[in-house]
Each structure stands twice: as structure tokens, then as C-alpha cells.
Give the backbone structure.
Amino acid sequence: MNFVKFDNFYYRYKGNEEYALNNINLDIEDNKYKFILLCGETGSGKTSLIRCMNGLIPQFYAGFYKGKVFINGNDTVETSIANLSTDVGIVFQNPENQLISMNVENEIAFGLENLGVPPKEISRKINESASLTEIEHLLDKAPFELSGGEQQRVAIASILVLEPKMLILDEPTALLDPYMAKKIINLLQEIKEDKKITVLISEHRLDLILPFTDQLILMKNGSIIEYDSCEKVVNGIKFQNLNLNKPVIYSIFSKLKKKNLFDKKIPISITEAIKSLRM
Ligand SMILES: Nc1ncnc2c1ncn2[C@@H]1O[C@H](COP(=O)(O)OP(=O)(O)OP(=O)(O)O)[C@@H](O)[C@H]1O
Ligand SMILES: [Mg+2]
């Protein structure tokens, strides 16, 4: 069974003429813990696609839809958002809106308390996810006292503690400086390996994220135009033609390739470029 399944799914927000999602067919396999990047120009439908994965679309956002979405076999129209959220953990763009408790420890405990987990278990789980996200020293603080990067890590910890089978993040580094952004992306890579879960991320900082990406989903005008291994997509014409913030190293080698001065796969990091030039 596929963990995520979109079946000829269309969606438009109430009051909009245009479809934000246009005949989406997408299968993400079970148990194959991968790092999947969701990539597309602004307004292409990335956030809307993510909103479907815990039922926010169509249950919370009013609009018109056609087709089906299944998460872990559950129809997202018939299953409550709360139940879907035990399978997929989603961290949305602005962590501030997601943090509601008086202190970080309560924030992380919140979801577990709602699920009726015994206090001893809660405490063990909090310590484990706080350690993984390196926020042990922040447990007594109020979320509003934290920096953007710290808030982002708390938001990740509070989702991670629920042990989702898939972690989804919508532009988790949008509000962070490049140093913090890199730390968050490294953390996500660690979580993927440590917890053996699939991480799906929408992210504009391609220079930071591409080196970790196993699979890439390309979106344009509400449609998925390509979904394949990162290497394949990055070397394709669709990626080349999209207006994205591509890594400098990609742009250099792509130009060399166009001029027939380079005929191998386009590297996406300096390490890869060096390797490729030595071969
Ligand atoms: N809450 C909403 N109500 C009405 N229309 C919306 C809403 N959210 C998004 N849209 C519209 O749906 C389309 C897709 O938007 P979406 O936010 O999914 O794109 P995106 O790829 O996430 O863009 P970005 O890279 O800027 O975050 C856009 O035309 C947008 O204006
Ligand atoms: Mg978005």
C-alpha cells in the first residue's frame, strides 16, 4: 500500500476561479524512508498540496474538490484531521502560530496529553525529542521568548514526539538566516535517519536542501509535472525551465553543458562538482 495516495484530485479555494490543485496523482511509498523535496514557483500549489495531507483541505479550507486523497489507507474526507495527524506530522511555515503553550515543555507534551499517554511516558518522550532537536535547555522557556530557529526546532519537537510515520514541513527555514537554515536542514536529515521516517519538505533554499534530497516533486500551476529521483529531475528540462532559486553550482554546470563544454550529470554541490571534474 502507498502511504500517500492522490487519485485524480482537484481543488479550488472558495471564491477562486482557478484550481490550486489540478488533477493530482501522487503515490508515496510506505516504509521507504526518503527525503522528498517539493519544489515549484511561488503560487504553484505546494502549500495547498501539503494541506491535503492532514485533511485541512477539504475539511478546513472551504472550496470545491474532486477526486480522492488517502493517507495510510484513510480517506482524508472521512477521517478526522486529528486522526490523520497521528500518521503525518506537519510543521507549517510560521512556527509562532503553531506554538500555543506557556512553556516549551508543555508545548511538546500537549499532543501526548490529548492522546491520553501516561505522564511517565510523556516525560520520556519529551526528553527524547528535545534531545534530538537540541532544545533541552529551552524546556522552561516561553515559546515567544525564543529565536526563530529555536521556535522552529520546538515546533519540530512537538510534532516529532507524536511519532508520525511521515514528517512534512512547509518552508521551515523561510524566516531563518542561512546558518540556522542549514542547522534545521541537517536536523531533518538526522531525524530521517534516526527515526527511519520519510521527510517531505517544501523549501526554496535549493543550495542547502538538494544535497540531501532523494526524490523531487516538481509543481507548476497546480499540477505535478515531474516526480522522480533528485538526480533525474535536476538533469531534466522541466527543472531547467522553472524559475527557481537554483544553486550557483547548478547554474554554472548547466551553462557549460549547453555550450557542450561538459557532458556529465550536473552536480548540485561543490563536493559533487569536484568529484565530477576529477573523474
Ligand atoms: N487560503 C487561501 N484562499 C484562497 N486562495 C488561496 C489560499 N491559499 C492559497 N491560495 C491560492 O492557491 C494557489 C496556490 O497557492 P499555494 O499557497 O498552495 O502555493 P505555493 O506553491 O505554496 O506558493 P509559495 O511558494 O508562495 O508558498 C495560489 O493561486 C494562491 O493564491
Ligand atoms: Mg507555500
